[in-house]
Amino acid sequence: MISKEDIELAKKARLNACSPGGKFQVGAALRTKNGKVYLGCNIGNNGIQSICAERTAFVKALSEGEREFESITVVGAPIGQEPTEKCLPCGYCRQFMSEYVDEFFKIGVVDKENNIEEFTINDLLPHSFKF
Ligand SMILES: [Zn+2]
Known about the structure:
This protein is an alpha+beta fold. It has a single domain (4-124), classed as Cytidine Deaminase, domain 2, CATH 3.40.140. The chain has helices at residues 4-14, 53-63, 91-98, 121-124, and strands at residues 24-32, 37-41, 69-78, 106-110, 116-119. The longest helix is centred in the first third of the chain and has 11 residues, at 4-14. The chain is globular, with a radius of gyration of 14 Å. The protein starts with a helix and ends in a 7-residue tail after the last helix.
């Protein structure tokens, strides 16, 4: 169950989003099974190498040796606005996450009332590529 604390952490992470040409800011709070939280924001550039908040958080955690993940909470909105729409992970992030999470991992998004909607990776990426 994703907590309100994780929503607030994702909102805090979102404030660091940077993208020269972009107008959308996303924050993510990735919680490990041992209770640590890694934050991520979207980091863009004018080429095609932009990275999403979700993968930023995963790359930080994976590079620190983390391998057991509980949940990720994602918030996003245009610059200067509060997140009001559910910000679901893009296709790259769904595939990326699917290779590091189990069937119980929760992906949480919020609406303007801070209501949390939770999904599993199988909800968002059924029949995914695996080998
Ligand atoms: Zn993405």
